Amino acid sequence: QVQLVESGGGLVQPGGSLRLSCAASGFRFSSYTMAWYRQLIGNQRELVAEITSGGRASTVDDVKGRFTISRDNAMNTVWLQMNRLKPEDTGVYFCKAGMSTWGRGTLVTVSS
Question: Quick check: 72 and 53 in contact, CB under 8 A?
């Protein structure tokens, strides 16, 4: 059974940090590009960062320099390190494997 389980969301003050985790199972994790998306309040789901099977990482301009994606193929896990968080980063963050496999998401709230 293909499964992605996100964790690590929560409430954080502006300027703070969170580290999201996505644990994968049921498929050959090392062969897939993994990505983090987010759905901000009132917006559509959007790409935040992705990392190829070979470890090449990229982030969108909105989070460049603040967020970092990484993976460990031995642990079947991908992370999103989020620093200098802003209130506008508030939303549900989703993990995605390949073209069509999604986790259920984890809520990130940035507020004082």
Answer: no
